Batch of 4 targets.
Target 1
Amino acid sequence: MFAGTGSDVGKSVIATAFCRIFKQDGYSPSPFKAQNMALNSYATPEGLEIGRAQAVQAEAAGVPCHTDMNPLLLKPSSDCISQVVLNGKPIGNRDAYDYFNREGREGLRGEVCAAYDRLAVCYNPIVMEGAGSISEINLRDCDLVNLPMAMHANADVILVADIDRGGVFASVYGSIMLLSPEERKLVKGILINKFRGDIRLFEPGIKMLENLCGIPVVGVVPYYKDIYIEEEDSVALSGKSIQAERGKVNVAVVLLRHLSNFTDFDVLERDPRVHLFYTNNTDELAKADIILLPGSKSTLSDLYELRRNGVAQAILCAHCEGTAVMGICGGYQLMGQEICDPDHVEGEIERLPGLGLLPVTTYMTGKKVSRQVKFCFVTGTVDTSCTGYEIHMGRTSPVEGVSASPLNILEDGSEDGYFVDHTCLGTYIHGILDNPSFIDFLLEPFMDKLVEAPAFDYREFKEEQYNKLADHVRNHVNMELIYKILTDHD
C-alpha cells in the first residue's frame, strides 16, 4: 500500500508507476483503492463506474479495469454532499457527517474487503492506494481505506511524503508517531516524492529520518515536468488559463464550478496542432477557435452560474463570430433549449433555459447511464470504429417538431448527441476525443491556420508515458529493497 502523509503527495502517480514496474518485471499487478473521492470517473467494460485514477492504474498494469479495484466512489456535488457509488452503482446522496457516522459503516467495510479478496485471488501483487493522510486520528474508527484496509490485506505500507511542500521531517515523523503500535508495524518504508535540487544535500536527512522513525527510506523520487499522467484532481486546471497562440487551433474548455471528467481533454493538451486552455474569462473565450463545454456534477447549478457571470453570453457571441462550440455530457445538456428537473434529482432548481445552441431538451432522471460504447460519428464511414463511455443522469431529446440529427450512431443502432454543423454539436460520450479520427473531424474547419504539425496517436503516447514514469521511479527507488519487503514475511 502506498499511503500518504497528506492529500496530493503523489500516491496515485506512484501507484501507477509501480503497476507498470511490476508488469514490466513479469508479474500480474492490479490497482486497488477501497474508497476514492473524485469527480473524474470511468465506465468499466461491464458498464459500472469507478474512479478514473484506478482506471489509469489498470491501464498501466495492462489489465481491464473492474469495480473491485475501486468498490467505493464518492462524487461530491457540494462541499458537504456526495453521491455514493458502491460496486459501480449509485446508492444515493450522503451528507458527509452522516456518511462517516451513520449505521451501516461496517457493511461498507465488508464490501470493500470482499472486493479486495476477489482481486487477490486473480492478481499478484495488489498495488493498494490510501487516501489523504494515514493519521487522521479523528476518523480512525470509520476509516475504510488506509491502515484498517492494510491490516485486512496484511499489506506492506510505504509512506509517501511530498518534500516540495516543505515540512517533510515533521509530516513523516508525526504521521508515524500518531499511529497505534499495531499500525506502525505495517509501515515498512518511506518514499520521499517531488524532490528538487541536488540529492547530495538531502542525504544526511535520509539518515536522520531513518534513525528517528526506525524505518528505511526506500527512495527519493525527483520532481518531473516531462512525463504526462492523467491528473486525478482539477486543482491545476486554472493554471492552464493562458492566452491564445498563433499557428495552432486555440481550444478553450469552460472552467465550470462543478467540472467533472476533465481528462476528456488531456489528448488535446498533448496534440501538437492544438493550444488548449481552461477559462471562464469572457475575453479569453472570445479568442478561441473552439469552445468545449465539459461534464458537470451539478449541471443546473453550473448553468445558473454561467448566466450570472456573463460566460453564457460570451459563448453565444463567440459562436456568432464563427467559433465552434461542442458540449460533452453535462456540456451537451447546457447547449440545449432547456434543462428540467421536476423531481429535484440535482437540487432545488426545477428548470432553466439552456444556451439555445442545440434544439434539444433535457429532463433529469434518477437513473444513471454508465456503459462503454463503440460508435461511428456523423461523417465517419462504416469502417470508422470509435470507442468511449457514458456516465450521466438525464435524458436528452429533440424539442417538439424538430427531427433527430445524431452526432453518433452506436454499435447497437441507437443514436447519440446532436449535430447542427461543424460549429455546433453535442454528445454524451466521454473519451470521444481520444479517437484520432474524431479529433481530425473537429479540427478540420481550422486546418488552414495551422503551422504544419504531425497527427497525434494518444494511445501510443500514453504507453510511452507509463514507461517513462516507471523508468523514472525505478531509477530513484531501491527496487531490491522493495522486493525484499514484499517477500520477507514471517
Target 2
Amino acid sequence: MSQEFRLGAFAIHWLEGGVFEVDGGSMFGVVPRVLWEKKCAGTPDNYVRLANSPMLVQTPHGNVLIETGLGNKLSEKQKTIFRVRREWELLSGLARLGLSRESISHVILTHCDFDHAAGVTMYNETSGLELTFPAAMHHIQRREWEDVLAPNRRSAESYWPENFVGLTEGKNLRLIDGDSEVVPGLRLVHTGGHTRGHQAVWLESEGAMALHLGDLLPMPAYSNPLWIMAYDNFPLDSVAAKERFLGEALDKDAWLLFYHDPAILACRLDHDGAVREAFCAE
C-alpha cells in the first residue's frame, strides 16, 4: 500500500496496519443505514470494513509515524471478535522503503484506542513484549495519557495496558498540553470529542497543507459535522471540533488524510462536503 503522496518537501506513505470490521451502528450512531450506506459500503450483516493504515511522514527533520495499527499481539479469539481481515504488516512496509524500526524518530497517536495504539508495542521472536520503535519519541496529549493510566469503565475496553509497556515520560514519551510542534511543519492540536485527549495533526510544507483528524474524520463519509460515531465519548465536542477544523481545512485548501478508509487515503472537499480531488489506494 505504500505509494507515495507528496506534500511539499514531505513524502507520505500509508502502511499496512491491518483491516477489521466494525458494526455499522457503532460507526454511524444515530445516522440510519439507508443514509450512510450511500457513502460507505456495508456488509449484509451491517458491518463496515475499516483499514488501519499508519502514515509514515518523511520530513527533512526525521521520519514521523502517525498511528501504529493493530500490532501483532491480538489473540485468535480477538481476531475473531474484531473480524480481522488483514494482518499487521507495518514493519514489512517500512523494510520495502529501506527503513527499520530504529528509523522512526517520532510516533504520534491521535488517541489511545487499541486500533490506533496496539502497534506501539510488539511481540518479538521469543514472544517477549517490547517497544516497536525503540528510538522514537511518542507524542500523546496529557489528558489522554491520564485516561490510559486510570480509564473509566467505557475506555478500559479499548485502552489496553500492554500497548504502552515501556513508555516513560521524559525518555520516550512526550505529554502535550494543547498544541505543540513535533518537527518543523508538523503540529499537533487538541480536539477532544472522540476521547477527552484526542488530537489532530496539521502538516505544512512549501505552502501545501494537510490535516489528519483521527477518528473525528475516519473517512470522507463523515464530512457532515453531525455524522459522528457512537464511540465518541463527548459527541457535542466532536461536532464543534469538526465544524472548526473542516472549516479551516477548506479555507486553507488543505488535504484531509485518512487512517481508516480502505480506498481514499487523502482528499480535498468542496463546500458541500463532497470529494473534489482524491488520492486513492492502488
Target 3
Amino acid sequence: MSERMDPPVNGPYVPFHNYDSYDWGPIPAARDRLNQGPFSVFQDEGWHTLMVTSPASGAVPNFGMGLMGYAHEEQGPPPVEGETMEQSVEKLARLPFVDKLYIRCDWRNVQSAPGRLDLDPVFDLSLSLSKELGLGVGIRVQMSNTAVFPELAVPDFLQDKIPFVEIGPAPYQDPPQPWREPDYTSPVFQKAFAELNDLLAAQFDDEALVEWIDLFQYGYWGEGHTGRTPATRIADFATLQETFLSMTRLQLDTWKSTPLAVNTQPDISRAGNDAVIDMAIRGGSWLRTDSIISIEESQQIEMHSNRPPFLASIVEDGGQRRYVMEELERTIEDGMTVREYAALHALDVGANYWSLWQMADNLAAFDRRWPGCFATMREKIGYRVRPAWIHRRKRYGRIELIVILKNDGVAGVPGTLKIWLESPDGNVRLGGSLDPGHPLPGKLRHASILLPEGMDYEGLSIRAEVETKGVVRPVRWACREAVDAEGALPLAPQKFTRMNWRKDQ
C-alpha cells in the first residue's frame, strides 16, 4: 500500500508500486513480427549451424545508448578562461569517450518572442558536430532553475504576463533569495507552453540526430520537484495534478516521432508525480533520473531497474560533476572515487545513458587518471546485440534461417529491433521485427526468416535496425567478427561449423 493516499484526479489513483510485473497494458505490436519460436529440430528436413559470433570488446556506439557530454547548461558555456563556447563544445564532442551531446537550457535560450524560436547558438553547433562525428543529441528545456533568479528562466516577453508564486528561499543562493516559480495553472502560461511545444516539435521532431526530448516538468531544473518546499504553495494538490497531467498529455500528443523522457522524481513536492510518470510511461516515454547514489533514490532505483524493457533509462548524477581532480582525490574509498561509484551504479539499474558534465579538460584528465571507468561504461551500457547463432535448415522445401540473438548489454533494446537478410544490390531484403525490447539484457531471442523458393544464404548479409515511434535507425552488431561499413554481418560458414555438416544438408 502507498505511504500516501491522495484523491484520484481525472483518472484512477496511482499509488507507488513495484515496477517488476506491473501491468503497463499490452506491449506495442510490431507490424512485421517475425516468428520467434519455439523451433524444434523435428520440424525440419536438415539442420546445421551456419555461423556463430562472440561478444565485441570495447564500445559499439548505437542509437539509444552511450555517454552524453553536456554541451550546455543553464549557466551557459563552461567557465574556462580564454575559451569560447564553440571551442568548449567542440573539444567536448571530440573526446574519444563522448557518444552524445546534451543541451540543458532554459526557456529563455530557445524563445525570445511570441510565435518563433530564437535558438541559442549551441543548438546549431551541437547538431553540426553530431552530424560530422556520428553522435546523437538530447535536449532539456527548463521552466525554472536554481542558478539564476528562477523567473529569468522564462523569456522576457512573458515576464509581466505570467504570474509567479513565491514558495520559499531559493536553494544554492548566498545570500538567500526568494524562490519564485511560474504559476503553471495560469491560462497565459498554458497557452505559451503549448506554443513552445509546437515550435520545438516543428524544429526537432523529424530530426534524426535528436534521440530524445526531456518532458517539460515543473520545478528545479524541470525535474518535477521544488525541493523541501511543497509545490502546493502554487495551487492545491488536485489542481496541480490535473495541470501537470494535462501538460504531459499535450506533450505526448505533440511529439509524434521523438521519444520523451520523464523524470522519475518521487512526489516529494505534492504535485501528482506518480500519476504523471504512469501516464508518460504508458505513452512510451523513456525514464530519466538525476542521481543514482543519493539518499532518496531507492524508489527511482526500483523504477529504472524494472521498467518496461523497450524504454531507455537516462542517468545523470550531479555530485562532483565537474570532475575536479583535487576534489575527487578526497572522495576515494577503497581505491575508487565517487564518480566511479556513481557511474558503475548506473549500470546496476540497466542504464542506456550516463552524463558527462561540461568540462572537457577535466574529463580527459579523469580518464587518464582512472582509465577503467569510462571504458567499462562504454563496454556495458545500453544494449549490445549480436546474432550469437545462425542456423540453416530446410523446411517446406525451402531454406530457413533461425537467428538466435544475444544481448550482452545491461539494457533492453529501446524500441523494436528489426533484422534483415540483404543482398549487396538491394534486390533481396527479407526480415522483420522482434517483440519490443528484445532480446532482453543477458538473454537470447530466436527469430526465423524463410527464404524464397530456390534461394540460399550465399551473398547475403544480416543487418539490424531499431524502430522507435515509427523512426528507423541502423544498429551496428556488437560482435567480435568483422562487420561491413553499415554494421551488417556477411553470411559465410565458419571452418568449425562446416566440419559438422552432414552430406545430405
Target 4
Amino acid sequence: MTDDLTQLTIKEASRLLRLGSISAADLVTAHVQRIERLDQHVKAFLRFTPEVWEKQADEADRRLRQGDAPPLCGIPLAVKDVLCVRGVETTAGSQILKGFRPPYTATAVARLFEAGAVMLGVTNCDEFAMGSSTENSGYFPTRNPWDLERVPGGSSGGSAAAVAAGEAMIALGSDTGGSIRQPAALCGVVGMKPTYGRVSRYGLIAFASSLDQIGPFARSVDDAAITLSLMSGLDPLDATSSDRAGMEVLNNFGAGVKGMRLGVPREYYDVKGIEPGVKSAIDAALAVLRTQGAEVVEVSLPHTDYGLAAYYIIAPAECSSNLARFDGVRYGMSEVDAPNITEQYLETRRKGFGSEVRRRVMLGTYALSSGYYDAYYLKAQKVRTLIKRDFDEAFKQCDAIVSATSPTVAFPIGSKTQNPLSMYLCDVLTLGGNLAGLPGISVPCGTSHGLPVGLQVLGPQWGENVVLRVARSYEEASGVKTQVADVV
C-alpha cells in the first residue's frame, strides 16, 4: 500500500484524501519511507524538512476534516535548492552559501504552501543552476533513477529525479536555458517552463535574471497544469511578473489537437548530435499527433546556430553581476582566514565557488568589460532579438512548435565533465525558448536503449494553454505515462 501511494497523480491522491480513504499524514509518510529506502542511491535531496512536513501535514488533515481543503491539500512537494524557504537552509547547491537560512519564502513556494502542498525537502542542483547534469553541485552528484550510473540532467536534476523515483509527487525547478525541460526528458517526467514573467521570481537565487523562470515537475500534464496555475500571477515583489490570471493557463487545454498546426523546425529535427533512437521516438510522437487530427508542418528557425553562443555570453554576463553579492561576509561561508578584506573576498570565492561557476563568472566579466561590451554582450543581445523574431515568424505558420527536448538520452556520469562545450551542447534545443521568453514543456515520449526520451512543445508568449493542450493530447493518445522508476 505504501508504494502504491507514491505512484498516484494529484487527481488520484486528492480524491482519496477527500473521501477519507487516506490522510495527508499517510501520503507524506509513504513518500518519506520511499525516500529513506531509495535516496541513498538516487541522492535527489540535499536536506529534509521534517519540522515543515509534520506541521503542514497536520494542517492539511485538519482542513480535510473541515471540508475546506485547497487544491493541493496534502500533496508532497520537493523544492530546488535555489528557492528560498524561510528558516530552511538554502544554498543554491554551493558551499559559499552553506548555512544560509533565508528570512523569507519565495513567492512561488509560498503560493503552493497556501494551496496545501507539504514540503518534504530541498533537492540537489548544479551550483547556482549552472550545468546540465547536476554534477556541478557543490555537494554530490544526483543519479538518474532509470540508471544509477547516468546523470539525471540539470540543473534541476534533483527535482526531476525525486519525481521520477516516486520520492515526491511534484517538485519545483528553475529553467534558465533548459534546466527544467532537459532533466524532465532524461528522467522521464513532465517538466514545464512558463513564459518569462508568468511566475514571480521573488525568492529565487538568481543566475541570469532575464532568462530565469520557475516551473513544476510532475507525473502528468494535468498535474503540471494545476501546479503552474496556482504558482502564477502578479507579485508586487517582482516587477517583471505579469498581472495575467494564473488560471488562464488552463483555458481550453483539454480540447485536443484536431485542426491545430504543429511546426517542426528543420534546424531542431536535424540538429547535430541527435541520437537515432531519440529521432525515432520523436517521429513516433509526431505520428500520434497526426492521428489526433493535427497537421504537422515544417518551419524554420534560421538563427538557431547562433543561439548557443549568444546564450553563453548573455547568461554568464548576468551571472557575473548577480554573483558579485556573495562574499561570505554577512551570510554563508565566513570561516576563511585572510590578512585583509580583499584577500578574504578572493579566498572566499576561490573556496566557495566551484570550477563551473568561476568559469562563467570570468566569461561574463570579460564580456561586460570596457572595450569588449559592444563586441560580445551587445552583439549577443542583437542575436537574441533575431531569435525572438524567428519564433514570431514561425508562429505565424503554426500554433505550437514540437521537437526533441534533448538530442541525447541520459549520458554516463563523468562522460562530459572534462569537456564543458559538450555539456553546453545539451541545451541546444531548449535555450531558444529562454532567449525568446516562451513557454515550453517536456513530456515522456518513449525510450531509446531503455532510457527516457522527451518531446518538447514550445508555444507563443502567454500560450501555456496551447502548450499544455498539445502535451495533454499526446499523453492521452500515446498512452506514454510517467512511470515511477524501479530504482533498486
